[in-house]
Amino acid sequence: MPINILMPALSPTMEKGNLARWLKKEGDAVKSGDVIAEIETDKATMEVEAVDEGTIAKILVPEGTQDVPVNNVIAVLAGDGEDVKAAASGATAAPGNEAKPESRADAKAGSGEAAGSPEPSSRAPASKPASSGSQAAQPANGHARIFSSPLARRLASEAGIDLARIEGSGPHGRIVARDVEQAKSGKGLKAAAAPAPAGAPSIAPSMSDKQILSLFEDGSYELVPHDNMRRTIAQRLTASIQNVPHFYLTMDCDIGRLLSAREEINASAPKDKEKKPLYKLSVNDFVIKAMAVALQRVPNANVSWTEGGMLKHKHSDVGVAVAMPGGLITPIIRKAETKTLSAISSEMKDFAARARARKLKPEEYQGGTTAVSNLGMYGIKDFTAVINPPHATILAVGASEERAVVRGGRIEAAQIMSVTLSCDHRAVDGALGAELIGAFKTLIENPVMMMV
C-alpha cells in the first residue's frame, strides 16, 4: 500500500514550513535514514530523513513552496514490490500508515505534541470526562473542566494565559497548541470573567492593517510580507511584555582588568599550522561566563516561573542573542559555568555562523535559563531587553567606553561598561535581582574570580 510522506513538525511551535529543496526525485529509491528534503522553519533550515523504504512515486509539493501546513501530504512513497505508477496515480495511505519524516534536529525533543498537528479524534460525547492526562484542573468556581492538550497547557502556562479565556478549536472544543499561539497575539480570547476595577485605564486595540495603510499615499511605500521568523518574534515578544511583569536594574562595570586579561590571553593563544590563533576571546565571552557563574552564586535567581511552582535550575544555560537576516535567534551555551572562556568562544563562533545560515537545530536554541543581549558593538551605551520565557532574566550589555570616575578624591579615566538586568518580578524580586547583577559586576570587574 502506498505510504504518504507528511510535512513534519520540526519544533513544538511549528504550524507551517517552507519546502526549500527536494534531495530525492520521483523514481528514486530511498531507505530509512536517507535525507530526502530540506525544510525551512521560522528559525532554521533542517534536513528531513525518511523512515520507510521504497520508491518516491509522486512529489505533491514542489520545492520552493511556502507555508505548507504540518501533516499535509508532500509526497507518496511506493513500498517494496509495489507498482510505482499505480502509487503515483492517487493512492493514499491507510490510517496509521503515514511515514512521518524525522528531523536530524530530533524534532521530538522537549514535546510529545507538535503545535499544529491534528488532535487525536474522539468518538466520546463532549460531556464525558477525559483522562487526567488530557484535561486541565477543575476550576474553583465549579464550572465544567477545561479540556486541553498537554502542550497547550504548557504553552499557556509559559505565556501566563488563563486557559479559561482561550477558545478551543480541537475536537469538542479542546484547546490545542495553535489556540494558545493565537491567544498570545490577542486572537481567540474570551472576555475576562471579572470587570476591570473602577478607574482602571483601558488599553486601546491596535490599528488594523487597513487603517494604517490609509494613512499613507498609494505608491509611497513598499509592503514587504512578514516571514515566519518575524511573525514568531512579534508574537513571543508581545506575549512577554503583556504577561511578564518586567523590572530593570542597571550597573556600571569597570572592565579595565578584563580588557588587560583579554589582551594577554589572546596574545598567548596557541597557533595552528597556519600560524593563526586557535581562539580569540571577545568581551562577550567574558560576559557569558560571568553571567553563568553569577547564577551559580545566586541560585535563587537561576529559575523559571510556572503556575505550578518554581523551576530551580542546576546549571547555567546561557542564551546569546545573535542577529540574522530578518530577525534574531538565541543559541544556548549549555552548562556555561563549567566551560572555559576559549570553549565558550569557539562554541559561540560556531553558533553564530550556523545561525546566520539557518542551520541551528531546535535543541540548540530552545530552553535555557537566562540570556545575554550585547549591542556594544553598535556603540549603544545602555538599553533594556525583553525577557524570553521561560527565562526569568536577560542581561543587556552596552558599549565599553572611557569615562571619568572619581577614586580617592581624584578624577581618573576608566573603561566603563553599562549593563541592565531585566527581571521577571514573579520569579525574581528586586533584592534578588540586585544580588544577581551585583555578583555579575564583581566577576566581570575581577575576571580571575571566574576561574576559581
UniProtKB/TrEMBL annotation:
It is an enzyme of class 2 (transferase). Its cofactor is (R)-lipoate. One of its GO terms (molecular function) is dihydrolipoyllysine-residue acetyltransferase activity. It catalyses: N(6)-[(R)-dihydrolipoyl]-L-lysyl-[protein] + acetyl-CoA = N(6)-[(R)-S(8)-acetyldihydrolipoyl]-L-lysyl-[protein] + CoA. CDD domains: lipoyl_domain. One of its GO terms (biological process) is pyruvate decarboxylation to acetyl-CoA. GO terms for cellular component: pyruvate dehydrogenase complex. Residues 147-184 form the Peripheral subunit-binding (PSBD) domain. Its EC number is 2.3.1.12. Residues 88-142 are annotated as: Disordered. Residues 2-78 form the Lipoyl-binding domain. Binds 1 lipoyl cofactor covalently. Residues 88-98, 114-140 have a biased composition (Low complexity). Pfam families: 2-oxoacid_dh, Biotin_lipoyl, E3_binding. Keywords: Acyltransferase, Lipoyl, Transferase. Forms a 24-polypeptide structural core with octahedral symmetry. Belongs to the 2-oxoacid dehydrogenase family. The pyruvate dehydrogenase complex catalyzes the overall conversion of pyruvate to acetyl-CoA and CO(2). It contains multiple copies of three enzymatic components: pyruvate dehydrogenase (E1), dihydrolipoamide acetyltransferase (E2) and lipoamide dehydrogenase (E3). This is Acetyltransferase component of pyruvate dehydrogenase complex. It comes from Nitrobacter winogradskyi (strain ATCC 25391 / DSM 10237 / CIP 104748 / NCIMB 11846 / Nb-255).
